[in-house]
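Many introductory courses stop at the sequence. We go one step further.
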Amino acid sequence: MKKLLLLLSLCGILASCAKHQTPINDVIPEHDSLTITSTLLKEDREINIWTPPSYTTSSDRFPVLYMADGGIKEDFPHIANTLAQLIAERKIPPYILVGIENTDRRRDLSGSSQVAADEEYCPLTDGAKNFRAFIAEELIPTIDSNYRTQEQKAIIGESLSGLFVMETFFLQQALFDTYIAMDPSLWWNDQYLVKSTTALLENAPQKQTTLWFAGSSAQDIFIATNELAEKLQTIENPTLTWKYSDEPSEQHNTIFRATKEKALIWALNK
């Protein structure tokens, strides 16, 4: 039994580090693409931008939803299509979607780790710090300069990208107003973010922030997400609105699509 549990946990960890592929039935929506030559990352980054239908029929400004794993062969198409559906049904306000295509997701989405064994899955060198700086200092200004945006910004991610969302929430909370993370890889660095929740939130800026996160049946995931939810229940923070969605019937590879609609409806209407 112990060997089985270890194998299941290892499969979850490997899945959380793997690169996502878009299924064939995801229709690629009409969108813009641009290339940013990043000084911080020392490479070109491909960016995909989807605008809601009312963008071309009005002069309004729009909030923006950012996402890593945002390549055409990653999660960009199905999130753009979901936004279009929810906007058409008037379940969420119109948002611009900005997807960042991966070059090395394991490097970009993982912070530093003091656990030597973690290097088997991702680098320990805090590539997330540079990736976050790229988003804050190069990507967001580029989007704001080229599109009619509001100050309101959200970020969404699943698995290792979910870890990046959660780390950004804890370490640089003012960067976004809304954080959405499905099955975040909170096992990273011996669950540092979970174990440090109280201390990290004590130093967080006093800004209205929304957090939605979910955990599947993957053992290495739900142990950490459940513990995080328990810790958040004990913390009084009037500027934080949060919701945890425990999803024991979902697997690591199903939770993103299974929960995306309710996550977006709850989080983007706050």
